[in-house]
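job 3f2a | input accepted
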Amino acid sequence: MKLINLILYFASDPHSRMSAKFAQSAASFRLTLNTSGLPLYNGFSKFCIFLCALNRRVFSCNAKFVLNKNRCGSVLILALWTVLFLTVLASNIGFRIRHRAMLLMRIEEKGALHHLAEAGVKKAISFLRKNFEESRLTLNAALKEELYNNPRRFGRTVLGKGSFEVSYQNPGWGNNSENKNYGVVDEERKLNINKAHKSAVRRLLAQLITTDEELIKKMANAINDWKEIGKGEAEGFYSEDYYSNLEFPYEPKKGDFETIDELLLVSGINQEVFDILKSYITIYGDGKININTAYKETLIAAGLDSVLAEKIIDFRAGKDAVEGTSDDNIFLKPFDIASELGALNELTKEEIKTLDRINESGIFKVNSSVYFIESKASLKSGKKQYKISAVYNMSEKRIQYWREK
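job 3f2a | predicted structure (405 res):
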């Protein structure tokens, strides 16, 4: 019994070196018993070794517990940094996914808007071709209304997820206060700056831009010098030296304008001047002016005075005094303009001479073949608008200009 108590004492003392030695002694005692031929006390030997091992395990756990108490703060900080990192990573991934989704949505919207606007242009071209085949676009009051002022045909058309309309801002004539008409615009109602004489350009500038004769002359000369080969006539600020002295110099084209926007490269033509001129000028067609559709400003630029131009517009408007309606009067032949106009409006001898003189120069015609088409599209789901502007030549059956915005 004493031996057992002694064993328990030494085995349970975690600070005593005797516990380890006791385990060695137990093993040695077991070996002695074996060599002396005495029975092997396996149970006792194993029991002693178990007590020593248990003592060491308990002591080791106590030491680890003390160390873990010191490490708890570090583990907690590490865990928080891990959570923060994962949160930032998840937010970044979410942002990227959202950005890509929005990008795909915009691409899809742009594609849908493009197809809607393109449908409007194709609808207008189809209508022009149909009328050209039936009547060679010989203008009459009904066709004039169909082409230039037709909300039923060219107004808002719902198609799929959105809608489109073919319309234009008409500074010259129309039957609404906003000067917005539904239809197409013939380019022959405008002044062709590639074909017109400088004097015609000066008269147009005098009506729209300024009354300063010197400035008008310089601007007209600059436009003329831009497209004509040879030494320019403009002097001073608007001479060819102007282009070479720019921060980013370039040379005058010395050729016809290829787009209306090219006019912005001409000296003296800023954005404000361009925005006023662009509705009254063109670079398409043969240079002749359609007297059945021309703006008053175009008629005056061609050489008519204001009173005679007003008489022509009154004649075209018909009884209701509104152009683009079914009661409009139409000039059928260029050389009959004076006689047809004189049947409804009294003309002076000077006015008749003016019309005859202009007719001899071949400036006027009574039909058009080049048309400007502007189709605007929008989606039901948003306020975004997409616009396609095109110029279609009926005689050549081809698109001469195409711009998407």
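job 3f2a | Confidence is low (pLDDT under 50) at residues 1-23, 25-67, 234-238.
job 3f2a | closed
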